[in-house]
């Protein structure tokens, strides 16, 4: 039997307004999740549509020991049957490939149309897919790729417990972060509450907020106006941060303090060495303080 995600408990009950995963209501029926739109009950972001799926509807998809997987794929491609409900998938989206590994991770590769989503639309679509497939006892999590490639700045593997919620019933959550900025007397920290949608990478969100600039008085930007994050990678060797060319615009003295602010902000997440690059060329390397 599939182990249940205790983190969901009351949160998912509120989000989906009484709709539960698994088979039902009704013997042999499966839930397909769709955006609730403006009229979602009690502010719910998604609603469930229960169906008995026809095996013939998935004839174009490869057979598998878990027969429900291709049935759910075909049903999501076809869209909701309930009037006035809409599909979260862009027109033309198809499931290209799929595989269920021994750890219970369902790998789904979607067509290029899905890669055009962003923001809340992307989060809602991800949520619909994850909840639809994670109701199956064999599926613990879903890995989403587009045309065989991971999506930039998005978590590849999502489970039910990754659906972050706020009080409005939206698939997002708020996390506390400490950002460091150059100040009058060296670096100063600024506390922030950041909003993350499903699949957002925490470290990426923190750095993007840092580059957007401080909110408090007496603090300075860490880089030039328009500086943005091109790539962020974490490995056993440490953090690697690739920034746009605008980061190098300030004077050298200010730039050094801005580089240190980035390293200090990442050390709040995990104390690993930080390598900074600008347009792919190494700028500086920072090691966490000993004994910290």
Short description:
The protein has 292 residues and is an alpha+beta fold. It has helices spanning 9-15, 68-78, 119-134, 202-212, 252-267, and strands spanning 30-35, 46-51, 95-100, 105-110, 141-146, 157-158, 172-183, 186-197, 229-235, 238-243, 274-278, 281-286.
Your description of this structure?
This protein has helices at residues 9-15, 68-78, 119-134, 202-212, 252-267; strands spanning 30-35, 46-51, 95-100, 105-110, 141-146, 157-158, 172-183, 186-197, 229-235, 238-243, 274-278, 281-286. It is of the alpha+beta class and 292 residues long. The strands form four sheets. A four-stranded mixed beta sheet has the order 3-4-5-6, covered by helices on one side. A four-stranded mixed beta sheet has the order 9-10-11-12, covered by helices on one side. The protein is elongated and about 65 Å long. The two termini are 44 Å apart. Mean pLDDT is 78; it is low at 1-26, 58-64, 165-171 and 250-254.
For the residues shown, what is the average pLDDT?
78
Order of helices and strands: HEEHEEHEEEEHEEHEE
The rounded distance between the terminal residues' Cα atoms is 44 Å
Helix content: 10-25%
Which secondary-structure class do the elements indicate? Answer: alpha+beta
How can the largest sheet be summarized?
Answer: 4 strands, mixed
What does the overall shape look like? elongated
Q: How many helix segments?
A: 5
Number of strands: 12
Radius of gyration: 22 Å
State which percent range the strand residues make up.
25-35%
* Sequence stretches where pLDDT stays below 50 over 5 or more residues: 1-26, 58-64, 165-171, 250-254
Q: Strand order across the biggest sheet?
A: 3-4-5-6
């Amino acid at each position: 039997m599939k182990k249940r995600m205790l983190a969901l408990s009351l949160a998912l009950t509120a989000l989906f307004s009484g709709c539960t995963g698994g088979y039902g209501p009704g013997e042999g029926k499966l839930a397909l999740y769709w955006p609730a739109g403006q009229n979602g009950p009690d502010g719910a972001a998604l609603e469930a549509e229960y169906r008995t799926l026809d095996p013939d509807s998935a004839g174009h998809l490869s057979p598998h020991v878990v027969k429900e997987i291709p049935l759910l794929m075909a049903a999501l491609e076809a869209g909701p049957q309930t009037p006035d409900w809409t599909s979260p998938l862009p027109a033309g989206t198809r499931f290209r490939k799929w595989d269920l590994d021994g750890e219970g991770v369902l790998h789904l590769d979607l067509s290029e149309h899905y890669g055009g989503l962003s923001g809340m639309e992307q989060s809602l679509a991800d949520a619909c897919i994850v909840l639809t497939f994670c109701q199956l006892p064999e599926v613990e999590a879903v890995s989403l790729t587009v045309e065989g490639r991971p999506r930039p700045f998005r978590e590849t593997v999502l489970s039910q417990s990754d659906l972050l919620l706020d009080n409005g019933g939206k698939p997002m959550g708020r996390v506390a972060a400490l950002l460091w900025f150059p100040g009058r007397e060296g670096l100063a920290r600024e506390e922030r509450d950041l909003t993350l949608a499903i699949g957002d990478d925490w470290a990426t969100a923190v750095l993007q907020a840092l580059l957007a600039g401080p909110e408090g008085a007496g603090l300075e930007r860490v880089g030039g106006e328009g500086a943005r994050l091109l790539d962020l990678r974490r490995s056993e060797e440490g953090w690697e941060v690739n920034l746009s060319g605008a980061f190098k615009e300030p004077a050298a003295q200010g730039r050094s303090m801005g580089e240190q602010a980035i390293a200090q902000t990442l050390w709040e997440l995990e104390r690993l060495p930080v390598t900074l690059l600008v347009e792919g060329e190494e700028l500086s390397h920072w090691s966490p303080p000993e004994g910290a």
